[in-house]
Amino acid sequence: MDKFTIDGNRRLTGQVGISGSKNAALPIMAAVLASDGPLHLSGVPDLVDVHSLLSLLETLGVDSQYGDDGQLRLLVQTRQPHVAHYDLVRRMRASICVLGPLLARRGRARVSLPGGCNIGHRPIDLHLKGLAALGADIRVEQGYVIATAERLCGASIFLGGPCGSTVTGTCNLMSAATLAEGRTVIEAAACEPEVVDLGECLRKMGAHIDGLGTPRIEIEGVSQLGGATHRVIPDRIEAATLMIAAAITGGHVEIAPIRPDHLVAVREVLEQTGVRIETSTGCDSLASLVTTAPPVLAPTTLTALPYPGIPTDVQAQLMALLSRADGISVITDKVFPDRFLHAAELGRLGARIVREGPTAVIHGVPRLSGANVMASDLRASAALVLAGLAAEGTTTVRRIYHLDRGYERLDTKLNQLGGQVIRSEDKPVATPPHWAAPASHLAIDG
């Protein structure tokens, strides 16, 4: 297990590249289970989650060839396997995305209930409700979802939940419905760019899908999906994280490639704090973006919401930033109301944060101080790294395996911008047995 040691209080400057989106790549990779041809992907980030899913797909009969340049070729070699085992699925929640395409193409699936980051209650009841509406027989036994269907049939499905639409649920049902007989309408569908990217790839595979990027997606089922070539969209969460890294360190950073339309909400909240952002349009809807920090950050109030709102996956990083603002800020998370485990760890660095239910009140402080902190999940890891970059002294962030699940070589990119982030093995410290008395006690008794 590795850790980061960060020498803080360094201004980030320069240019840095953005990797392909993890949250887009994973459901697209899972969709190969529904296809009868090779899927050629580019821009696939080299992440722990990507390799975890490749291992799972291999057990389900998929051959993969992954290159160092983010090129990935997937092809189903056998359609007999239908069990996604616990040991692989428990590593990340996105593994549940194999359920829909596996069931639609093979008529049966036995998929372990998923694992992932500890960020609050994340049931898959809407996934199962949607598949049942498509005609699947669904039951849950011994920690596994067991689904069967000779052929799925189109239906109207409502995916609204108490905290908004379900992104992975929309991906799962959209992939399944492409092979269903007849027409499927998904109401209250997730509008996230990652859902749109999956839909665009499915279209290239031969699916008939309308309404991508809206709350109403219509799918006319086809008898077969073929191969396709597709480039994964840039990771808007990584882009936002690096924008915040520039802001919290008083820096000036250019990032590319990005999709400016994917970052509108993040851009607005950063500009409210005084950050200046300039965009240069490139080709194929891609652009570069320059983030320049103000002398003093202004406080603000924000709410994490489903797209096109501020992403819950950026909430922790924004909390780190606002801990340095000159005044009181308020953050509410309406997607995952319990996603605040990072607040206590930011407090170890000197942040003043008070949680009140789904809301955190941040009293900005003039400086943060380095400390030992522990990451609880993927985005909390990023928040602690950002705070460590701005803190005076040395910060050690442990459990960065969370970070490696979703950021491709983040330490390398930060060092490229002038940070000093050292990755090293986190060796356990030897402790005396619990029965060993302190030396001073032994001296007195001796």
Shape: globular
Query: Between the first and last Cα atoms, what is the distance in angstroms?
Result: 41 Å
What is the CATH architecture descriptor of the largest domain?
Alpha-beta prism
Output the CATH class name of the largest domain.
Alpha Beta
- Poorly predicted runs of 5 or more residues: 116-122, 437-446
Q: Kindly provide the radius of gyration, computed on alpha-carbon positions and rounded to a whole number of angstroms.
A: 23 Å
Task: Name the CATH superfamily assignment of the largest domain.
Answer: Enolpyruvate transferase domain
* Count of DSSP H/I helices: 15
Q: Structural class from helices and strands?
A: alpha/beta
Helix proportion of residues, in percent?
A: 25-40%
* Count of domains: 2
Mean pLDDT: 93
**Major sheet:** 4 strands, mixed
How would you portray this structure in words?
With 446 residues, the protein is an alpha/beta fold. The chain has two domains: 210 residues, UDP-n-acetylglucosamine1-carboxyvinyl-transferase, Chain (Alpha-beta prism), CATH 3.65.10; 210 residues, Enolpyruvate transferase domain (UDP-n-acetylglucosamine1-carboxyvinyl-transferase, Chain). It contains 15 helices and 24 strands. The strands form six sheets. A four-stranded mixed β-sheet has the order 22-23-1-24. Strands 2-15-17-16 form a four-stranded mixed β-sheet. A hairpin with a 5-residue loop joins strand 12 and strand 13. The C terminus is likely disordered.
